[in-house]
Amino acid sequence: MQYYPDAASVVADLRPDESVTLIRQHAAQRAARFFAEKFPGKSLYAVKANPSPDLLRSLWDAGITHYDVASIGEVRLVRQILPEAVLCYMHPVKSERAIAEAYHQHGVRAFSLDTHEELGKIARATDNADDLDLGVRIRVSSEHAKLSLAAKFGAEAEEVASLLMATRQFAQRLGICFHVGSQAMTPAAYAEAMESVRAAIVAASVTVDIVNVGGGFPSVYPGMTPPALESYFQLIHDSFDDLPISYSAELWCEPGRALCAEYASLIVCVEKRRGSELYINDGAYGSLFDAAHIDWRFPVRALNCDGEPVAGESANFSFYGPTCDDLDHMKGPFLLPATIRAGDYIEIGMLGAYGCAMRTGFNGIQTGEPVMVGDEPMETLYAQPVANDGNAVRLAAKA
Ligand SMILES: *Cc1c(COP(=O)(O)O)cnc(C)c1O
Q1: Which whole number is the average pLDDT over 129-139?
Q2: Is pTM, for the whole model, over 0.85?
């Protein structure tokens, strides 16, 4: 991969016609080291957030040894790239063929489930294996998260006890897992979910070996500055300590977004301006799905075709993507210099998670070869404690 210091030098050198992904390997590795060192348990990378082989290798090198995979395609991919990685198949609905291939061919020993039917599938597909870590996924609230994951998966409170008891019979190690929703803006989300874990353990009176708090750890976006991650870790640690579980029980988490949001940004070209609407060469079918479909906002900065910053007062803009589809519209608002015009470039930051991973080839729109850059991401949760959260600063200072 070609290396540049920053977006300005990419624009000055390439003046690209197609959008270009900028890779910040150092940012993903800093996030990985942070989780590996500070999370009070094991951190599994949730591969769906960004399955790029380069990213997988970078995270492995920075100390992430366990991977949350959620399809047989992800199982095969990670096994091929990282032969020694521990893979945990954490999608609660799988085909028997996928379970069998994961178990017999790829060495997967950890699976999640949320029904008795799924437990039966796992038993049949692994020929009643006696070496499994099985996590029962329980339903918890998504009220503190920007993206709900509450509707689709998770056993209901009334069926959790019988499912835990049945799974206990079969599993070598029994786990309980949940997902509070993506971009959880307060650590309280995890404390509340841990109360549901406690209730489930008490109702079933089973011995639990693994508590998996899932993903949901936030990143920073315009209008969304979360408390420091240390405050999440502290609260999770405290509520884990209070659970009625054995001393040897393990704590797991599955960050996706938090590990890779800072990993990539995008350079787009302004192809046309119509008032406060900018027509750019990437969009809803490219790396900007969330900007189009859930009005997610991303940090932006404008560069002219020589890579110099475009100066002047700021104004609010929306974007149209390059396809012929009206839905290819990103409402924003994106704050850019009022003088921006066709031929200028925009760097759009924080697209490492659920951005580049969701790109399609719809309408024949191509993207340029990704390049590596060495500067800081446009936002970061990892450079210093977030100053507006007294509790987090105190925790960080103590650590
Ligand atoms: C998507 C997902 C994750 C990652 O979620 P983030 O919000 O990106 O941290 C973790 N675990 C499971 C089961 C998931 O489906």
Answers
A1: 97
A2: yes
DSSP letters, 297-309, are ---EEEE-TTSPB
Domain tally, the chain: 2
Evaluate: CB of 114 within 6 angstroms of ligand 1: no
**Residues 316-340: tens digit of each pLDDT:** 999 999 999 999 999 999 999 999 9
- Quote the tokens at residue 319: 């974007």
Residues 361 and 313 in one domain: yes
Cβ of 256 below 6 Å from ligand 1: yes
CA proximity to 91, closest of 118, 64, 117, 66: 118
121 Cβ neighbours under 8 A, 6+ residues apart: 94, 95, 96, 99
Domain end position, chosen among 200, 230, 260? 260
Instruction: Answer yes or no: is the C-beta of 254 below 6 A from any ligand 1 atom.
Output: yes
Find the CATH number of the domain harbouring 324: 2.40.37.10
Distance 46 CA to ligand 1 centre (A): 6
Residue 256 CA to ligand 1 centre (angstroms): 6
255 lines ligand 1 (CB under 6 A): yes
Same domain, 55 and 150: yes
* 250 and 320 assigned to the same domain: no
Burial of 363 from C-beta contacts in 10 A (0-12 / 13-18 / 19+): middle
Quote the ligand 1 centre to 339 CA distance (angstroms). 40
pLDDT, position 399: 37
CA nearest to 7, candidates 386, 381, 368, 331: 368
Q: Is 217 in the pocket of ligand 1 (CB under 6 A)?
A: yes
Residue 233 and residue 91 share a domain: yes
Separation CA 320–CA 299 (nearest Å): 17
Tell me how far the alpha carbon of residue 214 lies from the centroid of ligand 1, in angstroms.
Answer: 6
Ligand 1 centre and the CA of 17: distance in Å? Answer: 34
Beta bridge mates, 89: 69, 111
Which of 227, 260, 293 terminates a domain? The answer is 260
Please check whether residues 147 and 234 belong to one and the same domain.
yes
